[in-house]
Amino acid sequence: MSARWSASTFHCRRCGARVSAPVEEVLLAEPVFFTAEGAANDPRFEPRGSLEPGTLWRASPEQFGRELDLLVHPDSAVDLTPCGDWIGCCGPAGGDGPNLACPSGHPVATRVADCHTADFVAFARARVDERPAAAPSAGRVVVIGEPPIVRVQQLVAALHGCLGVTAWHDDDFEALVLDHTTSPGEPVRIYWVDAAASQRAGVPVARALAAFACARRTHGGVTALIPK
pLDDT by residue (tens digit) across 172-182? Predict the structure, then answer.
């Protein structure tokens, strides 16, 4: 894999302990990837999909607050123990400050997992350092966008080809990804080279990303579309 496909790990700012597995950023304007029982009760969440293990979404302070700004799947948080107020109905609601600590006992993250919320772990940017790491190696890696994707038809053809989907779904990205999730295969990470240029050319980058975010886990692993 090319060295440019890099990930990050989070480390406690006070003691340096690693508190996350390698995660790769998924660029989404809105948090469409949450899922939990009762999440539909909150209009901010669409309970169709989840943030995949191995991926990261950076929320703005306006969206979730400064203690909930580096969101990962719970499986991507490592060596954390409960601390502080673990308040909620069926799980922690996450509204009372950090409730997960590093091995040395320093609060670094918040688990949100109540019956009326989404389900994620959020590292607080002010409490962790982000360090470069090698991207996860499990599964198949595919690169699209070389040559640059400047028409939606190019993207449609590339995704059909790399996912091995035989039925033609045109630009119905959700149907395309669903077709892949119902067929045998292996986890796939798709790196989209210069997705920003594709977006400037009018290619529906956000809609394609949302379809993959909503696909959740497939074949025991991750099928993720990661813009670079």
Answer: 998 898 888 77
142-193: pLDDT as tens digits: 899 999 999 999 999 999 999 988 899 999 998 898 888 777 777 788 889 9
Give exposure, 168-196, as e/b (b: 16+ Cβ within 10 Å).
Answer: ebeeebbebbbbbeeeebebbbbbbbebe
* CATH class of the domain defined by 6-134: mainly beta
By the 8 A CB rule, do 222 and 189 touch? Answer: yes
Q: For 84-137, write each residue's pLDDT tens digit.
A: 888 888 888 888 889 999 999 999 999 988 777 777 899 999 999 999 998 766
Please return the burial class of 126, using the count of CB atoms within 10 Å of its CB with bins 0-12, 13-18 and 19+: exposed
**By percentage, how much of the chain surpasses pLDDT 70?**
81
Strands of the 221-227 sheet, one edge to the other: 140-144, 188-192, 221-227, 217-218
**CA–CA separation, 125 vs 104, rounded Å?**
18
pTM strictly above 0.70: yes
Residue ranges matching CATH 3.30.370.10 in the chain: 140-227
Q: For CATH 2.170.150, list the domain ranges present in the chain.
A: 6-134
Task: Give strand ranges (E) for the chain.
Answer: 6-12, 24-25, 55-58, 70-72, 81-82, 100-101, 107-112, 120-123, 128-134, 140-144, 188-192, 217-218, 221-227
Q: Please state which CATH class domain 140-227 belongs to.
A: alpha beta
